[in-house]
UniProtKB/TrEMBL annotation, chain A:
The lineage of its organism: Bacteria, Bacillati, Actinomycetota, Actinomycetes, Kitasatosporales. GO terms for biological process: glycine betaine transport; transmembrane transport. Belongs to the binding-protein-dependent transport system permease family. Signal peptide: none annotated. This is ABC transporter permease.
TrEMBL record, chain B:
This is Glycine/betaine ABC transporter permease. Keywords: Membrane, Transmembrane, Transmembrane helix, Transport. InterPro entries: ABC_transp_perm/SBD (IPR051204), MetI-like (IPR000515), MetI-like_sf (IPR035906). It comes from Streptomyces finlayi. It is found in: Cell membrane; Membrane. GO terms for cellular component: plasma membrane. Residues 29-208 form the ABC transmembrane type-1 domain. Pfam families: BPD_transp_1. It is a multi-pass membrane protein. The chain crosses the membrane at residues 33-53, 60-80, 86-107, 150-170, 190-211. Gene3D superfamilies: MetI-like.
Length: 222, 243
């Protein structure tokens, strides 16, 4: 209990929240790189997944990209960026790494969602004379929505986790509170930082579950 | 001579590095493999009873799946750091963290496998007088092996990758080499350790695929059936020729 008490004390100490390496600065960095990376990843992955899913092509690519993403260590990719010339480009190495790891879950889930739309429904829509874009917007997209949101959630959780690992190669974000604690043998700070990172991930996951429910096109009108 | 220089010029690929540090690379790889194997085996030993419990008693299914999903959401760096007060700087810390991650994948896959066992097979076994444990051991588990092995493969591949984060407490296998190389921007070491890590994941996946084939010979039956058929046709055509 001693360590948890110390961690709590560290968390409620005002001076730990302010300043250049304070919690607010690190949280802002974390949310900034995560948000930008998730946005870019969506812009890359979703159109590709929707197009491939609509055409029914490239299934092997969409599924394998996710398997490869799992085998590549986040830490190794970040480290490779940090020993390359990219290291002097501010947040760029982190954002590129985050995008790389957010694309696979987005792509695979959106593709599978599109392909799992009942073929009979698609045929019926075609029979009603719907054009390709109409079919996509009015039938395929609404029915694929749950899996698209699942992909978005896994991507967001992955991005938040990866952004914390960025601290291990000296990049900003909440993970820095943890690594700083390790460097000064301050277990209380390590645990406090870990609680913050874990909470952020759970809050992001929870918020996206809510967002998914609120925006659902199949939601029954109250 | 030029190979000697690649350490000085800090090239990405350096034969001299691989030669002179082969011992270091081997040790790190062995630590990596050891941590991964221990994590997946313990994960399996914990996940199996959890999945069986969730299958037998529906009211456990929700909490078990919910808890393992929450654990999976916690970022690895935070997970290892939260375990620090309990384990100190040790391999046990890294292995515990990795076990907790593998649980999500393993429990889900084993449960899916158990639920996919055909009710007819269960009924037949019960009719033959199988008790619940014998039913589980001799009918349900063998039939859910493909799903279980699929889970083990996913869990192993992601565990190999996640082990690198263990370098935060100095027990990250190849991740340690990556971290050591960062302050001096030692490119050859970062790249070699990273490539080894990916190769290790791919090799583990292939080995497990082979193991799965060995353990589930009945999934190969369709292929085996095709050959006798071809033989039969050949024999019958031979008979026609003879006749």
């Amino acid at each position: 209990m001693g360590v948890l008490g110390d961690a709590w004390t560290w968390l409620v100490t005002g001076s730990n929240w302010s300043g250049e390496g304070g919690i607010w600065t690190r949280l802002t960095e974390h949310l900034y790189v995560s948000g930008v990376a998730l946005g870019i990843a969506c812009l890359i992955a979703l159109p590709v997944a929707f197009l491939l899913g609509h055409l029914g092509k490239g299934g092997a690519l969409a599924v394998n990209v996710s398997n490869i993403g799992r085998a590549v260590p986040v830490f190794a990719v970040l480290a490779i960026f940090m020993v390359s010339p990219l290291r002097s480009a501010g947040y760029v190495p982190t954002i590129v790494a985050l995008v790389l790891f957010a694309v696979p879950p987005l792509l695979t889930n959106a593709y599978v969602g599109m392909r799992e739309v009942d073929r009979a429904v698609v045929e019926a829509a075609r029979g009603m004379g719907m054009s390709g874009p109409q079919l996509f917007l009015r039938v395929e997209l609404p029915l694929a929505y749950p899996l698209v949101m699942t992909g978005l959630r896994s991507a967001a959780v992955q991005v938040v986790a990866t952004a914390s690992i960025a601290a291990m190669v000296g990049q900003g974000g909440l993970g820095r509170i943890i690594t700083a604690g390790f460097n000064t043998y301050d277990t209380a700070q390590v645990v406090a930082g870990a609680v913050l990172v874990a909470l952020l991930a759970l809050v992001v996951e929870g918020a996206l579950v809510l967002l998914g429910r609120v925006c659902s096109p199949l939601r029954k009108s109250a | 001579m030029s190979e000697q220089n690649c350490l000085v010029t800090n090239d990405w690929i350096c034969g001299e590095y691989l030669r002179s540090r082969s011992q270091e690379l081997t040790d790190a790889t062995l630590q990596h493999v050891g941590i991964t194997v221990a994590s997946v085996l313990i994960g399996l030993a914990v996940a199996l009873p959890l999945a069986v419990l969730a299958r037998r008693h529906k009211r456990f299914a929700g909490p078990v799946l919910g808890l393992t999903t929450i654990l999976y959401t916690v970022p690895s760096l935070a997970m290892f750091s939260l375990l620090l007060p309990l384990f100190g700087l040790s391999s046990a810390l890294v292995i515990t963290g990795l076990v907790l991650y593998s649980l999500t994948i393993l429990v889900r896959n084993i449960l899916a496998g158990l639920e996919a066992v055909p009710e007819e097979a269960r009924e037949a076994a019960r009719g033959m007088g199988y008790g619940p444990w014998r039913l589980l051991w001799e009918v349900e588990l063998p039939l859910s092996l493909p799903a279980l092995m699929a889970g083990v493969r996913i869990a192993t591949v992601s565990t190999v990758a996640l082990t690198t984060v263990g370098s935060i407490v100095g027990r990250g296998g190849l991740g340690n080499l990556i971290e050591d190389a960062l302050p001096t921007f030692f490119k050859a070491q970062v790249l070699a350790a990273s490539v080894l890590c990916v190769l290790l994941a791919l090799l583990a996946d292939l080995l497990l695929l082979g193991l799965q084939r060995l353990l589930t010979p009945w999934t190969r039956v369709p292929k085996a059936r095709r050959e006798p058929l071809r033989d039969r046709i050949r024999k019958s055509s031979a008979a026609v020729e003879a006749g």
